[in-house]
Every structure is written in structure tokens, then in C-alpha cells.
Hints:
Number of domains: 3
Number of helices: 26
Bound molecules: phosphoenolpyruvate, magnesium ion
Helix content: 40-55%
Distance between the termini: 23 Å
Structural class: alpha/beta
CATH topology of the largest domain: TIM Barrel
CATH architecture of the largest domain: Alpha-Beta Barrel
Strand order of the largest sheet: 1-8-7-3-4-5-6-2
Number of strands: 16
Amino acid sequence: MEILRGIAVSPGVTINPAFLIGRQEFVIPTSMVDTSQADKEIARLKEAIDAAADNIRELRGRLAGTLTERYVGILDAHLAILTEENLFNEIAELIRKQGFSAEHAASRVLGEYARQLSSVEDPYLSQRSQDIFDIQRRLLKELAGEKDEPLKDLTGPVAVVAHDLTPSETLSLDREKIAGFATDAGGSTSHTAILAKALGIPAVVGLGRATSSVAGGDLVIVDGYKGLLIVDPDDATVERYRSSMAEIDIADRSLGELRDLPAETTDGRRIELYGNIELPEEVRTAVHNGAAGVGLFRTEFLFLQAGREPSEEDQFFAYLHAAEELGNMPLTIRTFDLGGEKVTAEHRHQAERNPALGCRSIRFSFENPGMFRSQLRAILRAAAHGNIRLLIPMISSIEEVYRVKTIVADTSKELRSEGVKVPENVPFGIMVEVPSVAVAPEPFTREVDFLSIGTNDLIQYALAVERVNEHVATLFTPAHPAILRLLKNVLDVCERAGTPVSLCGEMSADPVYTSLLVGLGFADLSLNPNAIPRIKRVIRSIAHEDARRLASQALELPSARQVSSLLLENLSQEARALIA
Ligand code: PEP
Ligand code: MG
């Protein structure tokens, strides 16, 4: 049994066989083979070893004389290990005796070699485990060839263990078969994390070396509460987890009783809870969980799911259906927030040195005017049939607001000239996720109908901490005094201007921050629909007056650590139970 620690990003626990998606493009199948096929499988293994050895020899030939002797020496060592008779025999024995496929047997044997080496105290020897991983990758690549095991063909539920998954890869997974996610890379607000939460799938990211510690088919526990990946758990651990899963199930069922009750503090302050959705079908979950509407529809996921730009018609029907399902409740449609980590294969070649600071989001839409206009046409057409609000992401200057408003006005005119009905005033809002807007929001409040604060990006930009980077994940915190001040500033300015403001970053779904947000003065929060009942329970357990005092105290503190301690010390019993 091995316990790896990472960042808990989507709550829940699952106990399943691992499905390993290696660091490279190949996938390690978990399948078994019939023992009658063992000879064929062993012949495949032999061929793959020979081919991998040829590759190394070829590489060695190319490098000899151009690199230091040491590097060539490493290749020689790889070759020696790979062609060592014992290695072949050990893998062949597993194929014959256990009925493992060649890939699975090879990944087990080499994985075990690497594990043993990495636990040796001598740093030189322990470094050599990386060489074994290299050999393993080389061999598996030969074995897998083009025959990746597509996730859609899986028969039972698995926990996906991967180095990292892009949002579009996450979307391409068969949700019915995926019981959990564990990745080496990623941070708490990466879009894979957001999507896992939306899908209600337990997930842990930033594990560092999950893909090296797990062989495909190993039993793993993904603990999305504590941020643990337990590899090959012993019976007592499995038993302990099984019984706590049963308790959590009972607690979750009781959350359903809150569905029709208001999110109201004990002294009568009402907070509206809206849902954040990535795909139109999530509207149903939002309504089911008692959302007052949709506060954020991340439409770029329509794009990522299709792998290309969705047509105006496809978008129109997606927006229309979502709006119809919501009845009179608002549907806040955010225009494509593409770029950064949210790119399709088509755009991946236009890699930028600093994608978070590059041509993403509204900048990307300006660069692609045809795409932007067709999205606006679809939104404005659907607005005639529902309570639709338009939200623009990543605004950093007032000129951008003027520019979008001109394009929206032109698009409405164009539609009307075609005889299409467009409502006079579709509520128009912007995301506050760039510090330039959070520091000086006044001019924006005069131009828009509402603001929505995106703390995921606001924290990234204000603290200079990349939101998807596990190496700086501990620095990414909503409790930083600068973030508290930015939130307070936007709230104060909006209150004076009479402009509604909500918060839709992941912070709104974290029970640790609920009192703080209520105390600062937020009356609207938008969050992952699966988290709505939990946050409602916390709101119903606190007094607005206490929350206000807590927020004032927090605003006086000089460090994130002190703010976090204050919030943790003052958690209500209900909030404490949810984060335990
Ligand atoms: C945010 O940045 O907080 C936000 C809600 O937008 P996204 O997570 O989609 O970037
Ligand atoms: Mg954002």
C-alpha cells in the first residue's frame, strides 16, 4: 500500500481499478488475455523488446561522438537492462501465470523495479528509477503502437490516473465509466478540476508522481476529501473507506431536504445561489439542487466538446434548451473563454509563451470576429425566448467594454434587419477577474448591468500564481489579504453605484469561505450545482451579524495564514462537518 498526497479538488471517495494514461501519448491497457493466447502475447513482447532495443541502438549510433560518454553510457545501460534475459523471463512468467496482457505485465515488472530503486536511500541509485521509467515508456510505446485502449470501450468503472488532462480530454472520457480522477499535475482551479466537480466525480490533482506509482489495473482509492491517492490499499483500509462512504451517502441524502428551503442566515439575510455550468445538460442538476438560475454558463465547453467551433444553429438550440429548462430563472451566458489552457487541437499549434497573459478569452473573440459574431447572434436569438443575460469574460479595460457593446448593438441591428426578434435590453455584464478592473471598478459600473467576480483568475493574476501549476499550488489562496481587499473594494463600489455583483469562482463553493463572503456583503453566489445544498446548509447555520464581524476582523489581518486560521476557528458546526 502506498499513500500519495495531492490537492483535493472534487469531493467524494471511490475505490476502483486504475486506468493509467501514461505521460506519453500511449495508453497502458488494463486487459487480461486468455491463457491460450499466452504464446502469442509473449511473441509480441519479444518483438517489442527487440524493436525498443533497435531504437536505442539507433539513437546511440546517432549520438556517439556528439555527446559526452556519460550519456551514451546511459543508453548502453538501458540497452543492457532491456535485453537482460531475466527481465524478459519475469514478464513472460506473469503473462503465462496471471493471464496479463504483455503491456500490463511489462508495466508491472518494470514499475516494481522502479519502485524498489526509488526507495533506496542512496541518491544516485534512487535517481536511476527514472531510467527504468524511460525503459518502461519505450517498451510500452512499442507494445501499444496505435492500439490505444479507448476509454469509451471500457466495461467497468475505473479511476483515471494521468499525468494531466486537458479540459477537452476530460470531456472526451466516458462519464459513465469514470469513477475518479487522479493526476500528477494541475491545481485546485484548473478546468479539469472544475469539470470533475461539475460531473460529481471525486478528483485529486497535483499528486506529482501518481503515474509512476500506479500500474494499470491496480486497485486505488481516490479520496477527494483529503486529497489522497491510495495505491494497492490493504483490506483494513478498504473496509474503513467502504463504511465511511456509506455514512457520507446518508449525509448527502439529507441535503436533498434543503432543496426547497431558502439560503437564509439565522437572522434573515437571504443569499441567492446560482449554478455554474459547463454544458447545457447540467441545467437539470442545477434546478434539481435548488439553484435560483444559472450564474455562469462556460460556453467554451461547447467548443471543446465538439473539438471545433459550434455552428450558430447548434449554439442557438443549446442556449434555447437551457433557457427553456430554467423557465423564468436567469441563464447567464458567458461568451467563449478560449485560449490559455482551454484550447482545441486546431489552436494548439499557436502556443504562446505565457498563455494566461496572452490572446485568451475576450481577446481571442476579438481576434476571431466571425466566431464572436455568430455566438452573439445565437445568444441574442435565444434571448427572445428566455431570461438570458450576457456575460463577457476577462475584461481588462473600459475600451473593451465599449467595443463589445458596439458589436452587440451591430449584431442586434443585423438580426432585426433579417426580421429576427431580439429583446430591447439583454442584461449585459462583465467578469471581474483581472486586477485592473477589481482595483478601479467605477467606470465599469456605469457601463454594465451587473458584475461577476471570477476569483479563480483574479487570484491567479493578483498573486502571480498560475492556477494550473501544482508547483505553486500552496500559494494560490483566496485568504490572501490582497484578495479580501479587492473583493471588498468591488462590493463597496457596486453598492454605491447600485450595480448588482456576484461571485462565481471556486471560492463560492468552499464552506471555509461562506461566512466571510456573506459577511463581506455578497448576496449572490454562483457555484458548482453539486455544491449548492452544502453551501445552503452552511448559510442556514450562520448569523449575518456574526459573519459581518468575522469579515471585519479578517480584513484587519496581515497574512493569508492568519485569515485562514480565523476562518477555521470560526466555522459553524455544519461547515466543520463538511470539510472534515
Ligand atoms: C474565474 O476565473 O473565477 C471563473 C469563474 O472563470 P473560469 O474559472 O472559467 O476561468
Ligand atoms: Mg476566469
